Description:
The structure holds two protein chains of two kinds. Chain A is mainly beta. Helices cover 0% and strands 53% of the residues of chain A. Chain A is globular, with a radius of gyration of 13 Å. By secondary structure, chain B is an all-beta fold. Chain B has strands spanning 4-7, 10-14, 19-25, 32-38, 45-51, 56-59, 62-67, 72-77, 86-93, 98-100, 104-109. In chain B, the strands form two sheets. In chain B, strands 2, 4, 5, 9, 10 and 11 form a six-stranded mixed sheet that branches. In chain B, strands 1-3-8-7-6 form a five-stranded antiparallel sheet, with no helix packed on it. The termini of chain B are far apart. Chains A and B meet through strand 5 of A and strand 4, strand 5 and strand 10 of B.
Amino acid sequence: xxxxxxxxxxxxxxxxxxxxxxxxxxxxxxxxxxxxxxxxxxxxxxxxxxxxxxxxxxxxxxxxxxxxxxxxxxxxxxxxxxxxxxxxxxxxxxxxxxxxxxxxxxxxxxxxxx
Amino acid sequence: xxxxxxxxxxxxxxxxxxxxxxxxxxxxxxxxxxxxxxxxxxxxxxxxxxxxxxxxxxxxxxxxxxxxxxxxxxxxxxxxxxxxxxxxxxxxxxxxxxxxxxxxxxxxxx
Lengths: 114, 110
């Protein structure tokens, strides 16, 4: 079974631009969560989607948004990029949306904002 | 809301020695405590987890202990090997959210 696939692997943008990141979960997994990873801050929860509905959202500004499609694939979008948005963005999938379930992470998208 | 503190942020040990990473959580309703290992260039991977009705769990060289009264849990790695070098994250969840600690970078020197 293929793992969680995130594209692109690396991305370089300039301030003010917008970016879209993609995540394909493991086949059969209906929940996708997104995390921002920065040095010293660990994994900060962005949002979670289950069956095309956003179930939970972290403490990030409205510039961060996401969606999930009927095939469970998910995208996240960051508009009006700021230097502080430079980070590794990880997506994780699981079978259900239960918080006590194992998460399967992708390798992430490394975003650099110049 | 839930807050998870993790210590130390970096840990260096000699091959064969033991390593201990500690986490504390704030929400007494938390009932699930997983540990994830992140190797360079990869996403985190679950290595062991414990639920609130259990005090200790072992899997070969790794073990996790949970003290619900004190609201802290720990990861123990015995007989460390160079391939144990990675960043380790603890996490705590209730029925609402899974919150991660800030990570511990473990370096095992041959």
